[in-house]
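Repro case for the chain-ordering regression, as requested:
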Amino acid sequence: MTKTYAVIGDPIDHSFSPALHNTAFLFLGLDCTYIAYRIPKGELEAGIEALKKIGISGFNVTIPHKVDMMKFLDDMDEECKMAGATNTVVNNDGKLKGYNTDVDGFLDPIIKRKIDCKDSDVLLIGAGGAARAIIVGFSKQKARKITIANRTRERADELIKFARNLGLESDYLNLEQAGENANKYKFVVNATSIGLKGIGCPISTENINIDTIVYDIVYTPVETPLIEQSKKQGASIIYGWEMLLAQAMKSFEIWTGRQAPYEAMKLTLLGRF
Ligand SMILES: NC(=O)c1ccc[n+]([C@@H]2O[C@H](COP(=O)([O-])OP(=O)(O)OC[C@H]3O[C@@H](n4cnc5c(N)ncnc54)[C@H](OP(=O)(O)O)[C@@H]3O)[C@@H](O)[C@H]2O)c1
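-- result from build under test --
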């Protein structure tokens, strides 16, 4: 019988996930299909019941449900527990197990480049759901300190506590101070939505230099203003699409037990930009 997978969230119609996973299923000749299913905030419980009724094999979870979905899980893996959020669910006969592939998906391009995170200092701009997974990632890799820069101080303070609980040093800068101090960090990571559609740069890049690794998780456009400006300063760049692809590959591998076809999925993704 054909196995069905989905991505749930709202908005969902511009998601790259159906194209990525359907390419992978086709490439490996698997009898599986993947759909986008819009579930508005407040309708998650009913949405999940509907997915169970159609015998969904697994699904991805995106904005705004990554945290709320935790309530409906019967079991979860370590990353999911640490992040307090899930982006990948497996349905075993009505029992739901949650995973968080954003954590290892974020780390994947860093590890591929053989960059050592141990004892490093990180400037993390943003304090939303993605920032949480990134903090878990850096704690797994034994970074030393994470400075959180965010527009809303309260949200940053929550994440500072979260990082400290994971054993990291953590403090706060506002967005202006973050630009002034960017040269003090090995990694500068953008986890805000600033830069989407090519609009805006989260911090001033004038102090970013040749020793800085700039990782922008925003993936549309591929070259965000932060990336463009940081390149001019000589920084090393990690692109948002790399994380997007890696987290999708990890979900695919959890569901199918097969190695995800990197080249086919990458071509599909980059072809869509
Ligand atoms: N590459 C990937 O695989 C991947 C994975 C996950 C997410 N993402 C991308 O990462 C971004 C953040 O996702 P999320 O789930 O963390 O979203 P979220 O929970 O809604 O958080 C949004 C963050 O952006 C900040 N922000 C938004 N508009 C701003 C503005 N005009 N000025 C200053 N700060 C602003 C928010 O600051 P406040 O706290 O002040 O509101 C908050 O820190 C999105 O663009 C998403 O597409 C990429």
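Ordering looks correct now. Residues 240-256 form the longest helix (17 residues).
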